[in-house]
Write a structure and sequence with these properties.
The protein is α/β, with parallel strands linked by helices. It folds into four domains: 127 residues, Rossmann fold; 162 residues, P-loop containing nucleotide triphosphate hydrolases (Rossmann fold, 3-Layer(aba) Sandwich), CATH 3.40.50.300; 81 residues, Helicase, Ruva Protein, domain 3, CATH 1.10.8; 54 residues, Homeodomain-like (Arc Repressor Mutant, subunit A, Orthogonal Bundle), CATH 1.10.10.60. The chain is built from 19 helices and twelve strands. The strands form three sheets. It has a five-stranded parallel sheet, sandwiched between helices. The protein has a five-stranded parallel sheet with strand order 7-8-11-6-12. α2 packs parallel to α3 and α13 packs across α15. The protein is flat. The chain starts with a strand and ends in a 12-residue tail after the last helix. The structure holds adenosine-5'-triphosphate. Adenosine-5'-triphosphate (ATP) binds next to α7 and α15. Keywords: Activator, ATP-binding, DNA-binding, Nucleotide-binding, Phosphoprotein, Transcription, Transcription regulation, Two-component regulatory system. This is Sigma-54 dependent transcriptional regulator.
Amino acid sequence: MAHDILIVDDEPDIRSLIDGILSDEGYETRQAHNSDTAIAHFRARRPSLVILDIWLANSRLDGLEILDALHREEPHVPCVMISGHGNIETAVQAIQKGAFDFIEKPFKSDRLLLIVSRALEAAKLKREISDLRLRAGSEAELIGVSPAMAQIRAAIERVAPTNSRVLISGPPGTGKEVAARMLHARSRRADGPFVALNCATLDPSRIEEELFGVEPRGDQPRRAGTLERAHGGTLLLDEVSDMPLETQGKIVRALQEQGFERIGGATRVKVDVRVIATTNKDLQAEIAAGRFREDLFYRLSVVPLRMPALRERREDVPALARHFMTRSIESSGLAPRALAEDTIAALQTHDWPGNVRQLRNLMDWLLIMAPGDSGSPIRAESLPPEIVSTAPSMLRLDRSSEIMTLPLRDAREAFERQYLEAQLLRFGGNISRTANFVGMERSALHRKLKFLGVHAEDRASGTA
Ligand SMILES: Nc1ncnc2c1ncn2[C@@H]1O[C@H](COP(=O)(O)OP(=O)(O)OP(=O)(O)O)[C@@H](O)[C@H]1O
């Protein structure tokens, strides 16, 4: 598949010059003239690489700020900066901020192509290293101390050694694939292959070839599909709801018979494969809408597992944040930095729409971007505004704060209400752990909450 390169420059001539050079080499290109269009393109589909001008006229953010914004969303997409008034300081700044390299205008097409191919190659190597790590099993552990995570880990331990099919549902980025790998690693098939097929990103017209493989055609040799490659191991059907209906029917038959024919042939291939599927859609609703086959649902969902959103288990945030920070330090080789208590507290109050994946990306970004001496703890003020702004507003007191308009007694109550609400949120509604942290007796905290009119659902204090 051709690499997809996003070109961000305010000058149309430069955009089309770069576009021409890259298209001639077979790259796919998209263009953006300012920060908002660049970010919209990036969100619509992650490009393989971004070429980013530092000075942009009529743009909300300049190139270095766009670099930050893009890396906050996805730090693994390489960015190459371009500047007309380039000086060594801007170059160093861009590279410190995580840009892959820097090119000055005017540039020769050979130089541009060399940097682009090096950036793509470096990104590919990084991906391969992380794939190897996945296969080595280091990504087959679900971190988290919440009761929900403990229950999921216990269910995985119980079901892994059986040959049961498992359907793992939950919002994007909640660890469904990690759970699938954990099931494989704990199964009797652990020495066999673990093969994943992502039904959402594959072209629907190619999905059957990928699954079942193809018989030799002309000078094309025989190609094994994912089912065959997973023989003796586990096949993960990732985002199974995106599988075309017709293919769903064929998968039902293949599961029933543990066998199938390659595309373009009649030879029966017999396999021994355990299938695990994931979905972030509600499959019952998909069945009702006629987009998912009920018989496939019942075949896949012998044991259902649901991964909760991160905001439903905020107790997991500190352990996950520290784990990803350690991983980031190991893989980047940068000096270790700890997360200060105020940073952890702010992370726990955030809602994490992108779930654990978003937290992981933020840790990669923070390690590179947080100001302060190497080795010093990372403080909450280093967090991007969208994370800090979800912290209760009155706790950041200044003269224009609403609390300043109240008499002391009301102000104290308002503060206590917000403080305790935030702490309860932080400890997932668990009264015992909140009381322990804020230094109150459990019963006294109960009375206080009642007096302040704070509704708290008292969850038992079970942890892993
Ligand atoms: N509990 C966890 N412990 C350790 N790492 C986790 C955990 N949950 C998620 N991750 C990490 O977060 C990232 C996203 O997880 P994963 O790919 O498993 O999510 P997913 O639910 O399959 O997402 P999607 O639906 O978008 O495919 C990965 O880097 C994974 O290693």
